[in-house]
Fold this protein.
Amino acid sequence: MILLADDEPAFQRLTAGWLRSLGHEVITAGDGDTARSAFEAHGADVVLLDLAMPPHHDPEAGLALIRQFAPSPVVVMTGHADQPLALKAIEAGAWDFLAKPVDPDMLKVVVERALERARLARELAAAQAREHSAEDMGLIGQSQAMVSLRDLIRRVAPTTLPVMVLGPSGTGKELVARAIHAASPRAARTLVPVHCGAVPADLLESELFGHLKGSFTGAHADRPGLVETASHGTLFLDEIGEMPAAMQVKLLRFLADGSYQPVGARDVRHANVRIIAATHRDLAAAVAEGSFREDLYYRLKGVVLKVPALEDRAGDVALLARVFLRRVDGAPAHFAPGALEWLEGHGWPGNVRELRSVVECAAALAPQSPGGRVIGIADLAFAMGEDAATAVAESPPPSSRQSLQEEVMELERRRITEALERTGHNHTHTARELGLSRVGLLKKMDRMALR
Ligand SMILES: Nc1ncnc2c1ncn2[C@@H]1O[C@H](COP(=O)(O)OP(=O)(O)OP(=O)(O)O)[C@@H](O)[C@H]1O
Ligand SMILES: [Mg+2]
């Protein structure tokens, strides 16, 4: 489908007629606003845009329009004398230009080339979406929790339902939001992230909904909001729990029917945006204490995806650690056996983010050897609790890596036995005291024959 935006009725009729006779579907618009809403409503594979249209007849305003049809290719149409303007338009993101009066054969070639490009972009996006939904969607993990999470993502991705992603810090909530977008029909458009806590409260509204020139001090020009940038794509509202109360009302309205008002505007606008929100906070508690609106909570709570803490994903630590290690630049590296076991048994309060940074630091610290870098338990000392780290550091120099490993095991056995005695053999308490997961503790106990 081609969108033809031009304010001259005769030109519009002739051009549309010619394109239709070539077998193309054409919709027309006589000014910038109509063009934008037609694009919003129907989408268009290619946009033919006259730069000087009502109400301003100002080519600069036309230039500002170009970006709003992204990612569809825009062909601008300019008068013959306007060569420099055409170049400006290309700089502003236009795909090509045509000089008026438009030569029909030229028009045919340019439009067909632009349609071909749009088709290739769509195919690429579809292939990427397929690839994403086919394998791990960028979310590594074989634990039951991750398998179910990916399954749920595949099921919500094709819908336009708002999604709420919950989970402790560093568990991969943003990655989940990106996976949903990438597996959705909106994958060819952008995902626009907004960190609700990082933008000052009084700026958040204009950031999201845009503003008109002069609507407040410092508003020197009209500015589109992020909902417009995210049009036909996805808006990711990160840390939604930090959203100021006044904004929550406006967001609720936007969620209800897609309508919003830029700051300083009288007219109501619409944007077709899918919302994904995330927070590490307990929103139900925030509702109970009155800092988060109940109605907004229930609207967002339609589909909730819970991202589990890393310690509740049995088997994933080793898998993630290996992948993170492979991603580190430089010579190939691998883990010595004790190192992986230690990683698996650690409690990971900082979740996947912490694991990633421990692996990256260890890779940087590990000594080079002829077979590549080997990350041994000593290279993880910095990540261990203070006691363990000191013990590793103070132990007499090991004759080989193996003997150091044995020493660490010995130290671990002693600490575990002591803690078990202190807690009356309560595994949960012992694990907590030692900064281990319960599963990690049990594994170690099995290995040391302490059970
Ligand atoms: N399943 C996973 N597979 C691969 N990488 C992951 C996975 N989960 C998280 N990560 C990586 O861990 C880091 C943290 O992830 P992310 O930023 O998505 O977490 P978050 O839950 O949004 O954290 P916060 O609450 O602090 O904002 C990122 O580097 C991300 O790429
Ligand atoms: Mg995040």
Notes: Residues 139-141, 167, 169-175, 280, 352-353, 356 surround adenosine-5'-triphosphate (ligand 1) (CB under 6 Å). DSSP finds 19 helices and 17 strands in the chain. The domain at 2-124 is CATH 3.40.50.2300 (Rossmann fold). The two ends are 70 Å apart (CA to CA).
